[in-house]
Specification:
Rhopdopsin 7-helix transmembrane proteins, 3-stranded mixed beta sheet, cell membrane, 311 residues, transducer, transmembrane helix, mainly alpha
């Protein structure tokens, strides 16, 4: 991609410059990334192969796990490689690619979480109309629209980056490329671009969070008219979703809704947002979900039986 400046590459300073701490960082990030990949791929495989997990909720959970896997992959491998390298450089085009992927899968996660809240709202508040409203074709269209919305959001980030002019230092005080760290390196007035950035990413995070919290408040309020067993099951599901929403949107809002200022905890908050949350999601959705655990056990037993027969 063409840029009207002299920036051909950037140097990522990473999480720390201390060699001993870098070893600890590599170990922790590696464990988290492997756990994220294994956990989310296990959920994807279970939902894809299990006949009992065919409801819209698990259809959306499939895409949430897919988005989580891709989201962490945009940052974790690069962070590990840079921690092992002497020169932590990233080319201009690679930087743009990372920004695009980061926002594509991050936005997709937001949209899927909203769809999951809509699904729970219809299932709990309008149970008789649920099969009609949340039929398979509707769910597929909603996922396609989510991908389109995520793509538009990511392209907007790239358009904003292409408007920046770089002519000085190329040191990014971060472990990945994002628009906000790049704004600090630009040798131009970035007030309007930052305003557009906050209006885009910040508004997406804040609006998504508010919509989700309102929907879950309505859902929880409507449970008073249900039986004790129905309340217990709905509360278990909604609690898992609310935990994921808070863990994901808290750091997201902190990073994307403020002026381009640097705080000491920025990078740690970003690590939790890009690597920590995707690691926790599989644990939350499996440990608190009896149907997913039962489906995993059935698939495991089927696999063991088939192996015994082959032997």
């Amino acid at each position: 991609m063409k840029q009207n400046n002299s920036a051909n590459e950037f140097i990522l300073l990473g999480l720390t410059q201390d060699p001993r701490r870098q070893k600890v960082v590599i170990a922790i990030i590696f464990i988290f990334y492997v756990g994220t990949a294994v956990g989310n791929l296990l959920i994807i495989f279970t939902i894809k192969c299990s006949r009992t997990l065919g409801s819209p909720m698990y259809f959306f959970l499939f895409y949430l796990s897919l988005a989580d896997s891709c989201f962490s992959t945009t940052t974790a491998p690069r962070l590990i490689i840079d921690a092992l390298s002497l020169k932590k450089s990233i080319s201009y085009n690679e930087c743009l690619t990372q920004i695009f992927a980061l926002h594509l899968f991050g936005a997709m996660e937001i949209f899927v979480l909203i769809l999951m809240a809509v699904d729970r709202y219809v299932a709990i508040c309008k149970p008789l109309r649920y099969p009609t409203i949340m039929r398979q074709q509707v769910c597929a269209i909603l996922i396609i629209l989510s991908w389109i919305g995520s793509f538009i959001h990511s392209i907007t980030q790239i358009v904003l980056v292409l408007r920046l002019t770089f002519c000085g230092p190329n040191l990014i005080d971060h472990y990945c490329c994002d628009l906000q760290p790049l704004l600090k390196l630009a040798c131009m007035d970035t007030y309007m671009i930052n305003l557009l950035f906050v209006s885009n990413s910040g508004a997406l995070c804040t609006t998504g969070f508010v919509m989700l919290m309102i929907s879950y408040i309505i859902i929880l309020h409507s449970l008073r008219n249900h039986s004790a067993e129905a309340r217990r099951k709905a509360l278990s599901t909604c609690t898992s979703h609310i935990i994921v929403v808070v863990l994901f949107f808290g750091p997201c809002i902190f990073i994307y809704t403020r002026p381009p200022t640097t705080l000491p905890i920025d990078k740690m908050v970003a690590v939790f947002y890009t690597i920590g949350t995707p690691f926790l999601n599989p644990l939350i959705y499996t440990l608190r979900n009896a149907e997913v655990k039962n489906a995993m056990r059935k698939l495991w037993n089927i696999k063991r039986i088939s192996e015994i027969k082959m032997n």
